[in-house]
Amino acid sequence: xxxxxxxxxxxxxxxxxxxxxxxxxxxxxxxxxxxxxxxxxxxxxxxxxxxxxxxxxxxxxxxxxxxxxxxxxxxxxxxxxxxxxxxxxxxxxxxxxxxxxxxxxxxxxxxxxxxxxxxxxxxxx
Length: 125
Hints:
4-stranded antiparallel β-sheet, 0% helix, globular, 6-stranded mixed β-sheet, mainly beta, 43% strand
């Protein structure tokens, strides 16, 4: 099973920006849909954004207009650009893939697999 590695997290002040990257250990790996999720302490893992192979993105309402998901077709890396970060964006961010081939972006984390180790994002002054 392919492993995904999420990176790019860190500590940032409110209003700041970060760009997360998700890379597969197998560079030949491709998936129909790759999703980003986050989990804050004591809370359920929640959907943040996802992108299809064709580049269509979907976002949770609270990040629309601030986050942007994209993928580099050359190296298979998927990025999550996060702007105007807020304290409520704090959490461990994970990437995972939906291999079901259904073509519709799912927000339920149970649909996804190959979860990486996550990267910590902390938004605080």
